[in-house]
Amino acid sequence: MKIVFISVGRSNENYVEEGIKDFTGRINKYFPVSWQIISAPKNAASLSEPALKKAEALLILQQIAQEDYLILLDERGQTFNSPGIAQLIQQRANESSKRLVFLIGGAFGVEESVFKRANTTWSLSKLVFPHMLVRLILAEQIYRACSILRNEKYHHI
Length: 157
Fold this sequence. Notes:
Layout: E1 2-8, H1 14-27, E2 33-38, H2 49-62, E3 69-78, H3 82-94, E4 99-104, H4 112-117, E5 120-122, H5 131-149
Parallel strand pairs: 1-2, 1-4, 3-4, 3-5
Helix pairs in contact: 1-5, 3-5
């Protein structure tokens, strides 16, 4: 199974890039992993919020195959603890999912079509974080989940 992180927005700032690279490299010891950063549409500043979400949805849905298992990160989603995310990853691996895709939407969230496509919606917190920090937190949590699955020392209960 391959893990794919998709995020809408600009590239990472240097202060988070190092951490993202570190945790991505760690995840790669368990599963092949990749990042896809989708730039906002060029005319984003002139679009209304619904129009921007629609334009982003078209870009997002082009990156997701029908057989992908999509986990959408959204503040209104279900909360999981770290062992719960580990269990979700293990279930996907047990069911021979080819790609497990984690999606961080745009600044205004995602259009309804993306919500409907998602297999699971996950809330990291009731707090709202900058997208670049969400990328770092997501990478760390997926690494933590992988270490839980291997019963390694990284995660302490």
